[in-house]
Amino acid sequence: MIIVLFGAPGVGKGTQAALLSERKNIPHLSTGEALRQAIAAQTELGRVAKQIVESGQLVSDEIVTGIVKEAMDKPEYSNGCIFDGFPRNQSQAEALDSLLEAVGKEIDSVINIKVANEEIVDRMLKRGRKDDSEEVIRHRLDIYNNQTAPLLDYYTNHGKLISIDGNADVEEVYARIENIL
Ligand code: AMP
């Protein structure tokens, strides 16, 4: 099963992806988490990405599709994947489609978690990540609105998009997602 958890930063994609992964036994791939790990480990990739991630910009498509490609080549991803934070623009969405097509697979569902903007900022400020200062959060929301949100049309046109209301506690949102699958 190939699922994309979609939505603005701070809507709970990571939390839900981790729960789904654990309970359905499907591996979870967060490009943001992979980048944060590379930064912490000070790898070559981490050195390139640090400034960009911490200022809330998007890392290049080449870097993130490289991360995804590398992960998808691993045997544990042969049965499926829950994507969290990828794709984030049109070119990444197309790269993912062709990557999957090459191995005879396709996305089953894109689950769009919807939460009001002010609630998002509150949630992220509580999270306290390095890229969660109010200024960087606003910037990341702008990038989401300009570059990522247009994918809602792309996935609607491909018959993949399902939206849920993410204004509820973690277990309630999980139940809504599970209901769809
Ligand atoms: P996230 O954990 O998904 O909120 O991602 C944290 C940060 O990692 C983002 O603000 C970007 O700087 C970078 N990042 C994660 N995923 C992507 C992606 N698909 N494309 C570009 N940059 C990404």
Bound molecules: adenosine monophosphate
Order of helices and strands: EHEHHHEHEHHHEH
- Tally of helical segments: 9
Strand order of the largest sheet: 2-3-1-4-5
Report what the structure shows.
The protein is an alpha/beta fold and 181 residues long. The protein has a single domain, classed as P-loop containing nucleotide triphosphate hydrolases (Rossmann fold), CATH 3.40.50.300. Helix content is 56%, strand content 13%. It contains nine helices and five strands. A five-stranded parallel sheet has the order 2-3-1-4-5, sandwiched between helices. It is globular, with a radius of gyration of 15 Å. The chain starts with a strand and ends with a helix. The mean pLDDT is 95. Adenosine monophosphate (AMP) binds next to helix 2 and helix 3. The site of adenosine monophosphate has 18 residues, from helix 2 and helix 3.
What is the structure about, briefly put?
The longest helix is centred in the C-terminal third of the chain and has 15 residues, at 134-148.
Secondary structure layout:
Blueprint: E1 2-6, H1 13-24, E2 28-30, H2 31-40, H3 44-54, H4 61-72, E3 81-84, H5 90-102, E4 109-114, H6 117-127, H7 134-148, H8 151-157, E5 161-165, H9 170-180
Parallel strand pairs: 1-3, 1-4, 2-3, 4-5
The structure holds adenosine monophosphate (AMP).
